[in-house]
Each structure stands twice: as C-alpha cells, then as structure tokens.
Amino acid sequence: MNRFDKFLKTCQSNSVKFIAEMAGLNFCLDAWKEHCKSQGKRPKDLNIAAQLMRRIHIIWGKYNELLQKSHLNILARSLQCLGFEKLAASLNSQIAEADKEKLAKYSLGIGAVRFQLQYMGHYLMRDERTDPDPRVQHFIPDTWQRELLDVVDNNESAVIVAPTSSGKTYASYYCMEKILRQSNDGVVVYVSPTKALVNQVVATIHNRFSKKLPDGLVVCGVFTRDYRHDALNCQILVTVPQCLEILMLSPHRQAWTKRIKYVIFDEVHCLGGEIGAEVWEHLLVMIRCPFLALSATISNPKHLTEWLQSVKNYWREMESAMDKSTTSLASVTCCTNKLQKQHSEKKSCRVRLVLYGERYNDLEKHVCSLKDNDVVLDHYHPCAALTVKHIEKYGFPFDLAFSPRESIQLYDTMLNSWPEWPRSHEFEPEEFNCFKNNITIKKADARKYEADLKVELAGWIALGQKDKVNHVLESLKPHPTDSSEHEMYRRFPLLVEKLNTMGKLPAIFFMFNIHLVEDVARILFQSLKNKQSSKQNPDTEKEIQSLKNKLSKMKKNIKKIQSLDPKKQTSSKLENIIATLTEYKALKKRLAKLTEVPPDCTYANSKAVDEKTLRKLLFRLRKVGNSFKQEILAMRGIGYHHSAMWSKQRQFVEMLFRMGYIRVVTSTSTLALGINMPCKSVVFMDDSVYLDALNYRQMSGRAGRRGQDVIGNVFFYGIPLPKVQKLMKSNVPELKGQFPLSITLVLRLMLLAAKADDKADAKAKVLSVLHHSLLSFNQQKNKDMLKIYFIFSCQFLLKEGYLDQEGKPIGYAGLVSHLHYHAPANFALVDFLTKGLLHKLCQPVKKGSAFFSEDVMEKLVLVLAHLFGRNYLPACYTKYKKTFCQSKVFLEDLPEEFAAAVKTYNSKIENNFGCFLLSAAKLADMEQEYHLPLSKLDFTGRACEESDLASHLMKSTKRITAISPFACLPGMMDQDLFNIHNVNKAVLRTMGVNASNAPILWIEKYDHVGRKRPLNAYALDFYKHGSLKALCEDNGLNSGDAYNLLRDFSLTIKTIEVSLCELCEDENDNVVLAFKQLAENYRTKLHKV
C-alpha cells in the first residue's frame, strides 16, 4: 500500500488515479475478507479495515463526479462487508438478503461513525481546495495561504499566526522571489531569533534562488555578531534582531535602509521574552516598509495587530510630510526620473491579521512510567488536565484540541458518569447531526462534534452537575507509577526501544541541561553497544583486535607496493604483491563483517543516506573537537543538539535527522525555535522551570510530519502529573511589551538624530521608538512614565558629559554606543577613562615604548573581566578552591581605585534614579496598590479604616508618596528609594519600573540565602595559560560554551580598541596602544584553540 500511495502522488491524471483507487479498493476488500477468514473468532486487525474505509473516503471525496452505477455497487458491497448496512443501502437499495447473511461474517460489529472516529480519525479528509493558484507551482495552497500571497502582492503587512509545519513560511520565500524579480536594488531582510536558524535559512535561500547580478552584488548575505558576509551588498539579508537594530540606528546606513522592501520577522512571539524583547519592538516601529510577522504561539494577535497598525498609520503621516518636502525640493532642483519613479511607487499601510488554528496532524499525549522492567505508556486525554473550577472560571483553553478518538472517549466517559444524561441521544455518534447518514466523515465534522461536546460538558456545570463533571475529568486521568529521577534516566534506553517497537521514531527528546543532553545520548549508545556485545562470540573482540593489528602492520607495506612500477617487477614479486593485496582486502572484508552493527542494535536508517553522502558529512567534522564522539553516536542513529556545540556539529545532526538517518536526538530548547526538524514524536524528559506553556507548545509542535505521519505523539517521561496539567491548560502569556527604553538606547537615538545623513528620516525613527512602544499602546499612564524616564536619561547623559546643552552627543558617546550590548559596563569603562585610571594602569615597560608588560596586560584583563566577562558561579563552589590545577577559577576583586570609582558611579545612578521614581510615582494606580498582588485582597475597606495600626501608618508624617503601602509596615520611606537594594521591595508596583531599569553595575551578587556568589575568572585564566581544555576542566564549562564566552570577550576588546582609535587624536596614547596589544594577544591565543 505504501508503494501504491507513492504512485498516486506522482500520477498527474485524475482518470488514471480513479481507476487505480478502484483497484486499490478491490485489493483492500479482498485483503479484509482473507484476514477475517484466517482469524476466525479471534480478534481482527482493524488497521486493514481502516485502509479499506480510507479508500472509500478518497473515492467518495475526490472522484465523486466519476462514479457510475457499477462503481457505486462496489462501494456499497465494501461498506456492507464492514457491517455498515445503512450506508450501503444509501448507495444501492437493491442488496439481496442472501448477500447480507453471507457478508455478515466480515462485519466489524460497531457503527460506521464510531469506527471512523475511533480507528481512522487521522485519515479523515479535510476540506482542501482543488483549484490551482498560478503563483504556486508545487502544491495547491489553502485559502489562508492565498491570503498571504495576496498580502505580498499588494505590498501589505501581516501578522501570521499558524501552527508549526502548517506552511506559513512559504509566504516568506514568495516575498523574496518577488523582490528578486522586481529589480537589483530592493532588499528583503529575514530576522531570525537564533544563529542556528540563520544558518538553516541561508542554506535554503542558496538552494532555492539564483540570479545574475552586477559585479559586487550577491543574492544572499549574513549578519550576526560574530559573522558578517555581504551584509550591505545583498538582496536577501538574513540576520538576528540585534544586528539589524545596529544597521537601523546607524547614522550612515540610512541609504541602505531605504532599499529595504520587506522585513520578515520569524518567531515574532520573542517580542514577549524577558531578554532581547525590546529589540524586536524597536525594529517593528522603525521599519518603513511592509513586513510579515510569523509565529505559532501568540495568544493576543488582535492586540498586536492593532498596535502595529497604529505604527503604520504614524509612518503614513510621516512619509506624507517627508514626500511633500522632497517634492518641493525636487521642483526646484529638477529631480531625476529615478527619484520620480521612487515617489510614484504605491505603498500600503494596511496590517492584516491572518489566523489559522488547524494543525494538519492531531497530537496525542502520553505519560510514561516504569513498571517492573518495562516502560508503561498511558494515553493522556486533554480533559484530564482540567478541573471543574478551571472550566467554570476560564472555559476550555483555546488550543486544547482533541483527536477524533479522544472525542469518542469523552462521550463514552460522559455517558458512564451520567447514565440519565438528557441529551445523550443527540451526542450518540451515529445520531449526531453532522454525522447522520453521511457516507464518510470529514475532519471539519469531527471538529464540530468536539466543540459541541466541550460546550455540553461546560453546560453541565450551569445545570448544577459539578460532581458529574468532576467524575468525568477524574475518570480520564491516568495513574502512572512514580520512580526516582535517577531510575528514569537509567531506564531511558527502555523508553527508546519501546518507541522504536511501536513505530514512533524519529523522535526528539527535550531537556534543558546541556550535560544531561549528552549523558542521556551516551547512556543510549552504551546500551546498544552492550546489546551487540552480548550477542557476539566471546572470542570476537579478540579477533577484531588481532585483525586491526595485522591491517595496521600491512598498511605500510601496501603504501610501498602502491608506489612500485608493475612493469619493472619480476613475475615472482608480482605474485607476492597480488597475494599481499588479496590478503589485505580479505582482512578488511572480515573486519567489516565482524564490526558490522546488527539492525536491532542501531536506530540508524541506513536506507535514508547513501555511503558517499554520509562520508561527505563526516568529512566536514574532521577538524571539529569531539567529532569522533558524534560520529560513533551517528552510526547508531543517535545525535544530540545544544547551543554549546560548534555550528558544524549542530548542522551535522540537523541534516542527518532531516534525511531520516539519525532517528533519536536529545536536545535543549535550541530545536524549539524555527529549526526545520519535524519528527513523529516529541518526548519531554526534564522538569525544568524553563519548561513553560510557551516552550511546551513550541516543542510539541515539532511532532507530526506533514505528508509523512498521520498523527503526532507527545510523551512525558519523568514529568510530574501536576506539571503536565499546568502545561496543557495554561495559555501562552499575552504580548504586552517590555520596558522599551534604556539610557544607552536614548544615547543611540540622540546619535542617530544628530549625525544622520537624512535628518527627517532619523527624526521620524526616533519619535517612533519613543512614542509607539507596545507597553504604552492605549496606556496613557505608561506613555507619561516613559516620558519621565526619557528626561531622567537625558539628565544623566548631560551630567556625565555624553550630551551637550543642545542634546548633541559629545565625548565618549560613540564608545558607549558601540558597547551597548554591555550596558551598564560601558558607562563604567568611560568613567575609568575620564578619571585617568586606565592611563595610570597602562604604563609601558619604559618611557616612549609601545610595549606593555604581562603584568599590565593581566591587570587590564582583570578590570575588563569585571566589566564585560561577568559570569557568576554558585556560592558553594568556593569550597573547591584548592582543587584546581591550572586556573584560579575565582576572579580576584577589582583593584581598589577601580572599585572606588564603581562605587561612586553607582551612587550617582542611585540618586538620579531615586529622583525619577519620586517623579513617576504620581502615575501609579493607587487603588491597585492597596490590593495584594496575588490574592487581590483589598486593604482600602472599612475594616482597615477602623484599624488603629492602619490609621497610624497611613496618617504618618513620614514621606511615603512613592512607597508601596505594604512596604510602609517595616518603616520604609521615600528616602529609602535612593538605595538601589530597596527599590524592588518598596517601589509602587503599578509603575512598572524596578531596579533593573537603573544602569547600576553590581560589584557583588548574593544568592537567595545571602551568600556571596564569586565571579568566574575564565577570561583571565585563559589569557594566562591559553588552554581551552584546562579552562573547561577547572571551570566546569562545556567547550562550546567556553569558546563562545572567550570569543565574545575578545570581540569586546577589539570593539574598544577600534572605538578608542577613532576617538583619540594621539595614536601613540598609552591606553590605545595597550588595547591594541591586548586585542592582538587575545585574538592570537583564541585562534590557536
């Protein structure tokens, strides 16, 4: 049947397909009859019946207009064989009674609707369009996909929310193709959340597009922090948000930004993250061109679309004003035809919302537990995650979907819980309105049944049947056995073997600990190796070693033989040579046979990749560390994936997994965002705080490959049931926006406004960032608070000498801007420069020399490590202080003068920030301030007024205008806000501001029990010994993580060096020379590893 389905996919003629389908129906019918005869009274394999009914579905749904009476008779007979008498009679009313009796032995014994829902729900046909779209060559797009193409054709913007693998990314490549066709000047920017996704998109673009361009121009460019290639001379730029922001805020890159015709934001829900969310927001409000914002997990897309529409309306007004100014100037200067054409281009400011919530494949969940020496898989019905209280208060979560068989399961459970259910007959599958008298059931009908069941169950609560609802929910819950975490990981190979036996591979196993990801992969590999060893003859290992030794010795002789000229050799020598070569080949063949991995000792699919391709991929890993470990894992069909790996290692696993060779991958969340790694099953193995509603939906969305899997599977292994319930019923957090401003950003905006080539464009961008934050959308108080913060930022920049009286950047503004990644350490560095501390430190070996001693270099690295290499260790690490060999591990304290400067800097920030909090306090919602944040208990009522203690505290003469009422209890006052350590405890919470909004450089950090956490000395340790291996061993770092940290630190030193060279008029300044030497030294050491 698989070969038959492949033929149908390649066949272009409908009439031929119809004939083939009828032949397939007859084959399935004969197979079902034969199976029933062979089974007798034993249970039947209903998968055969499902295949028979599937053929009926396809013929009735796709070729209805080609059906003739003879064909209808065959369909009727097939339905009759399955026992669906009513359906058969609707096609052929003249069925003989004798036939009925004869065919009764083949009957399934259940109703047609119940059978279709319970046993072939994954085969139910969808309402798909059959009319081709000339814009799409390889498939027929759905209605919502055509809307995306219309958006691009009309130069509109769109927010697109659709499940993973639904086909929303196709619009991105259609957009790229359109811009490439239009001209050689237009640019499309693809914004990806991670560097791993950047690499994948670039590979796809190179594979899909090619174009002849003038010299100096290329189709695709890349821009990430550590890699930049053809960024400004390409037509498709693939980048990360932070790098595009650099270009958008660069005063001298405005001409390039005006060439941008479309921006594609992939995984735009990152706008709601805690780290880097503000950068996404800045980009969305600064771009003038249309955009596509893609995501699978946005809970309030309408709100997001309204905000983006308001931004586009702003740009329409600003562009209209700028166009008038340009037109006026052009009338005087007689602008060129090219400029006139540019003005005549039609632009649309419309932002569409395109929603599509239907997954192509259903997802079914299972919880795993250990019993005896086996892994037990219990089906987890989505309703098992709910409670009566949750349904009563919130209803059913909008994305809590059932598979058709889960709908049947819910109906049966409802009927068992309430036998006298008044409406049970209406919901009986064979009697339900959408199903009754239909030959076949469609997916949309099953969804209607699911929706009505949900409404009915919620309605029971309104009827006062809470106990019965609770009984339904409790009856659906599985009861897995508990096991220790250690035991779960030790038995992990049993789980993989179980999934393999059930046909549930390929699978991705998600964890959040890098070391655990690698360890679990090794445990699985060792299990397969032990299994193979147990099957081998005890002497096999000795024979293998003996063969390896012989081959090693013979290899030298073979090299000599290959260098000889056969024509110059005697016949006896030639015979010896032939004998040696024959023996060598025989030994190699014998060794290959002995070391061959049996099929049941590997998860690799050897048919998926040919030997040549596999060798080519392995060759790419030859110079990468630990490549041998990955190679031996891959040979067993196992891989692991995390952020600390080298990019080539990750790509190796990704490619082999997509090809189907590797079928087991353990991974962190690196595969959750956008990477094209669809699989049949997803397994959650690590109960981490990072496993939240958003990550759960992103990760589980990988399960179920469209066109390959009929259903996706999600397994919970070692995850407590309460956590599973929370994940399934919790909605994804709404996108409300993060605090969008920082002092560094304000300075960058000032630089753009002051130094831009196009002042009007720069001013419009600056005002857009300041006026259109998501946080302040339709929130006037938040707008006012951001205005006050902007004033606070300007005052600080003015006092510290970064702005002059007219607001123009001066002094070290450029250096601070270049180091915006590292705020507030960038301000502290400038403080060291202005106070002469770095000049005092950077003294050459002798006057007039350009060379600095190692002692000076090490002290400079120590200072920079405190600013730009702040990696904190747990407090308990200090007890291992004497066990390290080559590294100090714990960073020494800052030199006294530098520490005093940081303290003075922090004191100034505290005073300025305290004044800001006092000014912004009037914007707080005081009514909400008297409610406890979680319980919402109100302390403004009569009981509080009658309390002597409350009255005393509220009528106190102390100044508490900016202090939370609950923080007044321990005696806090307004003046306590001038101590940054008190801010989070005392500030009015409805202000939406906390200590993180102050650019404080924390010298010390403490854990939750008050222990000081030491800083890691990785940057200084590496500079001293230059060994990545020693650094990893002593500091407990993964090699990939360690290298990334060192590379970032080296890039920071280089950035400082370049900025100082631009700022300093004296090229022989000691600080400039010292940074040049340090940058070169660090780069050289890093290059060696």
TrEMBL record:
<dbReference type="GO" id="GO:0005524">
    <property type="term" value="F:ATP binding"/>
</dbReference>
<dbReference type="GO" id="GO:0004386">
    <property type="term" value="F:helicase activity"/>
</dbReference>
<dbReference type="InterPro" id="IPR059032">
    <property type="entry name" value="WHD_DDX60"/>
</dbReference>
<dbReference type="InterPro" id="IPR011545">
    <property type="entry name" value="DEAD/DEAH_box_helicase_dom"/>
</dbReference>
<dbReference type="Pfam" id="PF26167">
    <property type="entry name" value="TPR_DDX60"/>
</dbReference>
<dbReference type="Pfam" id="PF26076">
    <property type="entry name" value="WHD_DDX60"/>
</dbReference>
<dbReference type="InterPro" id="IPR027417">
    <property type="entry name" value="P-loop_NTPase"/>
</dbReference>
<dbReference type="GO" id="GO:0005737">
    <property type="term" value="C:cytoplasm"/>
</dbReference>
<dbReference type="InterPro" id="IPR052431">
    <property type="entry name" value="SKI2_subfamily_helicases"/>
</dbReference>
<protein>
    <submittedName>
        <fullName>Probable ATP-dependent RNA helicase DDX60</fullName>
    </submittedName>
</protein>
<feature type="domain" description="Helicase C-terminal">
    <location>
        <begin position="586"/>
        <end position="747"/>
    </location>
</feature>
<keyword id="KW-0067">ATP-binding</keyword>
<feature type="domain" description="Helicase ATP-binding">
    <location>
        <begin position="149"/>
        <end position="316"/>
    </location>
</feature>
<dbReference type="Pfam" id="PF00270">
    <property type="entry name" value="DEAD"/>
</dbReference>
<keyword id="KW-0347">Helicase</keyword>
<dbReference type="Pfam" id="PF00271">
    <property type="entry name" value="Helicase_C"/>
</dbReference>
<keyword id="KW-0378">Hydrolase</keyword>
<keyword id="KW-0175">Coiled coil</keyword>
<dbReference type="InterPro" id="IPR001650">
    <property type="entry name" value="Helicase_C-like"/>
</dbReference>
<dbReference type="InterPro" id="IPR014001">
    <property type="entry name" value="Helicase_ATP-bd"/>
</dbReference>
<keyword id="KW-0547">Nucleotide-binding</keyword>
<feature type="coiled-coil region">
    <location>
        <begin position="530"/>
        <end position="564"/>
    </location>
</feature>
<dbReference type="GO" id="GO:0003676">
    <property type="term" value="F:nucleic acid binding"/>
</dbReference>
<dbReference type="GO" id="GO:0016787">
    <property type="term" value="F:hydrolase activity"/>
</dbReference>
